[in-house]
Amino acid sequence: MASVTLSDVAREAGVSLATASRAINGSANRTVRPELRDRVLAAAAALHYSPDANAQAMARGRTTTLGLIVHDIADPYFSSIAAGVTTAAERAGLMVTLASTGHDPEREIAFIEVLQSQRARAIVMAGSRIEDETVNDRLRAALSAYRAGGGAVAMIGQPLFDVDTVAIENTAGAADLAVALHAAGYRRFAALAGPAGHLTARDRMEGFAAGLASRGAALAPEHIMRSAFTRDGGYEGMRELLDSGAAVDVVLAVNDVMAVGAMAAARDAGVTVGTGIGIAGFDDIVTLRDVTPSLTTVRVPLLQVGATATELTLGEPAAEPRLERVASTVVLRDSTPPRA
Amino acid sequence: MASVTLSDVAREAGVSLATASRAINGSANRTVRPELRDRVLAAAAALHYSPDANAQAMARGRTTTLGLIVHDIADPYFSSIAAGVTTAAERAGLMVTLASTGHDPEREIAFIEVLQSQRARAIVMAGSRIEDETVNDRLRAALSAYRAGGGAVAMIGQPLFDVDTVAIENTAGAADLAVALHAAGYRRFAALAGPAGHLTARDRMEGFAAGLASRGAALAPEHIMRSAFTRDGGYEGMRELLDSGAAVDVVLAVNDVMAVGAMAAARDAGVTVGTGIGIAGFDDIVTLRDVTPSLTTVRVPLLQVGATATELTLGEPAAEPRLERVASTVVLRDSTPPRA
DNA sequence: GTCTTGATGGTAAGCGCTTTCACCACCTCG
DNA sequence: CGAGGTGGTGAAAGCGCTTACCATCAAGAC
To answer: Where is each HTH lacI-type domain found (chains A, B) (predicted)?
Structure first.
């Protein structure tokens, strides 16, 4: 409680407050005689002095905090990004303040405001935006208020706002996947497209459709199932698809977690994944690399995405919002064996 | 940059600093005339005032930060705990500061010191301790320095330090699992025991052995494989076990991630998981619920563990360190079908 | 009518640090 | 041998808030 302050240290060392501060932090253009410095350091150690970061932040006018806002930290997609962010932040001497919004844009906005209060140096926001201009406008307002206060922002996802963005190549990756599947002999396609208005899902769907089109194939509208962007959403979508009796060779789930749900649904329906029906996902979640049959997917380097976003906020602020594109690569595995 | 301060708001509203502060925060035993309060609030809104949390922390002498220290945020075990912590923290009006140590105890200590500097209200530490008294002593010292400053601490794991602890019933759960497997007809046991000195792994192993003993069975020392507490560790351990030609019915991996690695190794060796060899894990990681065959495991309510630990730090500090035991429950699935 | 009170508003004293000045020795040259 | 540096040190002014502590005023209490 009665924590020791810098003045205590100064008194103990028999120097002024100013000298103590300089000795401990090594001031920019002032030096302290080695002998004095040692005395201060010794006193600090003896008293177990721990500088008050809040006071320092206040005096220096800048903090050492970086805010990370994700939809759901328990989701492997986001926790991988978080790992990248914490690593890069630590490298830069920043602590990460984590906010998990549970997919609620209102809480996203609220957290931006809290982080603004904390005078966080930067905010990294991950997670797909949605198509709701009312909400997006408020988000935009919150972000620009934050930036007006000198904060840096990087988004991971769609380049929707005027801020630095790390964009994952959802469209291109999905197109590549479509082409690869077509090349493997698949002809009748379906998709678990996620919820309407979900931009990441939409991009992946568009890419997939475009890829198919480039090979002269197509995705029938009745083969596009809409459901939640979750494991259970994948399960539901797949069940409905199978129930509909649609004749389909392969189905794309717009993320790995949905794909795994879809695999479970197929199994429960007695359909063999792979030889019976192909299933492909997106993200290449590490934890899911060992499902059987192994899942065809599009790899997204999530740790790197997190690190890149963090670094984007750390450098000089650019005049123009920067756009960092992160390539995604198709990984064909056993869930979509070559079709004879 | 030139962020607006409370004095700006006060001037704009034509009141004193004190009144502005009281109007905005609703002081404890002071009231502000509604008319004035509205004027202040209006001014604050007009100027886009955002209180400076650092200054508030400094003036109030207490922050609204809770520190969370985990080994690896990308690990589903920890990210689930983190989800529980963020939820509980938000309920209490706290922001979570996340530190991911990469299993390095030195960084654990360093982060405790940083959190102490930030004057975080509480620290939740998750992750197995190791048997290294030198390191543990330093950790203990760092924690007690932090607590001397008024901070609360809760650990998730072994009740090793004199702090509130949420202990997962590793021993009992593993014993239950052993009994259940024995009852299912398994007789020849092996284990992927994780690294030596890893306390969680050790507890699980001891529980497993005890459970077997209670049924008159035993775990042959040569069937205990030591490897990393990771997916790859599980793979390696399993491969060695299979290579050794040991005659085994079922193998316990001390966590789910290792179990999944073991399943992969079995598959690669042409051994059928389930009918060929049983495999069981521990934790019941959500993301892994859909692996095939579905994994027998011991469920640990990780979200709840995180929430409980958080709540432990929030209430009145207890004279005695509290110990909250969280039950774990056996979940038998297809990776260990009943043995005829 | 005077005296208490309770409700309000303002003044000013910090909270623990950093940093600008001012000041003081000493040096180094011309 | 004085002018003009040059390191080193300390005093003190904040940083943006909260919160005693006072001062004021109107409404009741006697």
So the answer is: 4-60
